[in-house]
Design the sequence.
């Protein structure tokens, strides 16, 4: 069973461009979380999604950031008009649809560098 | 905000048991204690979780006090590869509760 897959692992964008980060959850998982980690800082929650639905986006910046998790395909975190302050590691995690007592599993992250 | 308090950093000699404490005095009855770790720049790795009974798996043991206000993660025979930031998290163990990370404990395993 493959783990959570994130791509690309490294992404370089110029200021003003768009960044698209992809996350494929583990097989059988239909819930996805996105986190951001600025250099030398902790993991900050951004958004929590299930298929075709945003459950909690309380950690998302109000502008330029959006996330989706379509019925088919990976979850996408989209950053429009990137700025240098968006440079960070972005991690995705997934958890199963059913049952209690569940844990979330994380991918290896996408490292975004804005130049 | 994180609901847990952990020491900022700890050292442990290689081969010895590493005991990482965590305080969660406001934990609710339906909240579990989870531990994750992050080895330098990698994605967080799940270690173990429990509700009120002590738990053990191939990676670690989790000891939760009877009043559930604190817990200890035990790595029985620490190796250099266990050097990481360890996060203690409390959350309701259903799919609709996000994971909030605090600052964690930076564990250094000394050769």
Sequence:
């Amino acid at each position: 069973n493959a783990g959570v897959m994130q791509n690309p692992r490294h992404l370089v964008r110029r200021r003003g461009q768009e960044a698209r980060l992809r996350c494929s959850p583990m097989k059988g998982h239909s819930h996805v979380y996105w986190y951001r980690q600025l250099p030398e800082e902790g993991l900050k929650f951004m958004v929590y999604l299930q298929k075709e639905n945003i459950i909690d986006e309380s950690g998302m910046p109000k502008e330029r950031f959006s996330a989706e998790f379509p019925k088919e395909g990976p979850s996408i975190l989209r950053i429009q008009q990137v700025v240098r302050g968006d440079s960070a590691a972005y991690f995705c995690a997934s958890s199963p649809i059913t049952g209690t007592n569940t844990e979330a599993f994380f991918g290896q992250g996408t490292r975004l560098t804005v130049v | 905000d994180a609901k847990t308090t952990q020491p900022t950093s700890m050292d442990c000699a290689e081969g010895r048991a590493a005991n990482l404490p965590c305080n969660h005095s406001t934990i609710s009855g339906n909240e579990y204690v989870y531990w994750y770790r992050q080895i330098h720049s990698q994605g967080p790795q799940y270690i173990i979780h429990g509700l009120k009974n002590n738990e053990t798996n191939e990676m670690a043991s989790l000891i939760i006090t009877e009043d559930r206000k604190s817990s200890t993660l035990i790595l029985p025979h620490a190796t250099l590869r266990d050097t990481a930031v360890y996060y203690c998290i409390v959350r309701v163990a259903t799919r609709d509760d996000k994971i909030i990370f605090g600052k964690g404990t930076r564990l250094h395993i000394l050769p």
In short: Residues 63 and 83 of chain B are 21 Å apart (CA to CA). The interface with chain A takes residues 32, 34, 36, 38, 41-46, 49, 51, 87, 93-96, 98-104 of chain B (CB under 8 Å). The first strand of chain B starts at residue 9 and ends at 13.
